[in-house]
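Annual report, structural modelling task.

Input specification for the 2,6-diaminopimelic acid complex:
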Amino acid sequence: MLKFSKMHGLGNDFIVIDAIHQSVELSKQQIQMLADRHWGIGCDQLLLVQPAESAEADFRYRIFNADGGEVAQCGNGARCFARFVHDKGLTDKTVIAVETASGLIYPELQSDGQVRVDMGPPRFEPAAIPFVANELSNTYMLTLPSGPHVEISALSMGNPHAVVRVENISAAPVAEWGPQIEAHERFPERVNAGFMQVVDHDHIRLRVYERGVGETQACGTGACAAVVSGIRRGLLARDVQVALPGGCLHISWPDEASNVMMTGPAQHVFDGEIEWPIPTQS
Ligand SMILES: N[C@H](CCC[C@H](N)C(=O)O)C(=O)O
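The model returned the following structure:
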């Protein structure tokens, strides 16, 4: 049997597995099955808790999208990761050094139950995103297969993000444009597509069509990317409330040389066991 916890950050939901005390080898198909909301447990992402590989970290954090693809960063997941390792007694620290494929992050469990995460610096160089562009710019024009020419910001928060500004988030073409942006040929590793409405200089509304998942209730790295892109476009202050379908995150980017700070909730839903290895569909 395989033990797991079901958790979420503002409705962006996760299967969290202690791979320190359990031997867990997951194929892409098995991850797809576990993530499936009919054949398995159901989640947006599956998170593995592993021993750290470097002396400066407490744990290693691996992230898999529902399509089975491994990715390098997940903001909502980082908050749930910290809540999990603390509440399961794997650490008594409240500031935890976590290795990810895109570098170290530092979730902090706060006394009010919120979790604050230093998400590291944004990256803008096209090659670091990766994004195909002739020059570095705050915005780019993207031609979608269905015809529209869309203005985007492109950046990395350890994972790739494209951010589109819209006037009305409720009417944003997330279902129509999201998949086209996600799979656009100029993003060789695909991309998370954010749709941002600027409500005020310190308040945005955001919906994200996530790479490897589809539209989610919330996206932590997407919130970081949207705020950073809004600041660089001269639209936002340095501390911003981000209203997502699942609730609100606080994002802060003190200056161009700083890391991005994200604060929000992390919710445990239930613990479970599943037959293992999971029978794969024949
Ligand atoms: N779909 C993302 C990974 C999860 C990001 C999101 N759940 C977050 O909270 O940051 C990607 O493929 O890069």
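The pocket of 2,6-diaminopimelic acid is lined by residues 12, 44-45, 65, 71, 74-77, 159, 192, 210-213, 219-222 (CB under 6 Å).
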